[in-house]
Amino acid sequence: MRSLPGTSRPGFPPPAPAAPPLRLLIADDNPVVRAGLTALLSDGAGTTVVAEARDGREAYEAALRHRPDVILLDVRMPGVDGISALPHLVPLAPVMMLTYSHETETVREALRLGAGGYLVHGEFTTEQLVRAVRDVREGRPQVTPGATRALLTALRSGASAHSDPNFLDAAAISEPSTLSRLQSPMGQSFRSRFRLSEREAEIMDLIASGMTNQQIAAACFITEKTVKNHINRIFAKLHSTTRSQATAKWLGVA
């Protein structure tokens, strides 16, 4: 006897329901970054952003209220920063550092305090970010090349897993299946396509961190006029007309 259209055939189980999207909380004081990540991770990628926060305190309150599956946490934020908030967030959900900071001690401390991954802006694609979120949710650590270099620097300086039991195992750090997973096929950051000079990349880094032209000039020991000239060339290469647009492209959230 033939089954009616639209009904399951006898002996075949009904199709499994689609898995619900992973619920994410994004904590970053930069509204451009938050908006960009929310757009990227709420666009049919099997993830959805349920809350945003501007600092560690807001992240903790939002995590208690929304109970996300994964927390994406910046390091440098006003008020309660990411490192200070991390011990309070880890018991609530897996935490992946998603930040611009890749100083050796910062990376090491974040992983020591329980971060499930450490991704540096500009070192991953959208697809890789989504995969990293899922891996961290499943307990598989993810570290991008910039953070890896910081950890290897610490190892070469004499910090070893044998002398510090809380330090991430060196074998795990250098495991190719972990480290190469987030690298592009060419083994280079996608930023290389912008063809910025070393000085321009340095200044773009400072722009993305929120510095003014005056602050950049002081940090680089150059005049504000020189800073403006660099910024004009940077905007041309990034096909941007504002600092927000340039920052979003530079951080990979546009």
From TrEMBL:
SUPFAM superfamilies: C-terminal effector domain of the bipartite response regulators, CheY-like. CDD domains: LuxR_C_like, REC_NarL-like. The keyword Zinc-finger does not apply. InterPro entries: CheY-like_superfamily, NreC/VraR/RcsB-like_REC, Sig_transdc_resp-reg_C-effctor, Sig_transdc_resp-reg_receiver, Tscrpt_reg_LuxR_C, WalR-like. Gene3D superfamilies: 3.40.50.2300. Residues 189-254 form the HTH luxR-type domain. Residues 23-136 form the Response regulatory domain. Keywords: DNA-binding, Phosphoprotein, Transcription, Transcription regulation. The modification 4-aspartylphosphate is found at residue 74. The keyword DNA-binding applies. It comes from the Bacteria. This is Response regulator transcription factor. It comes from Streptomyces lavenduligriseus.
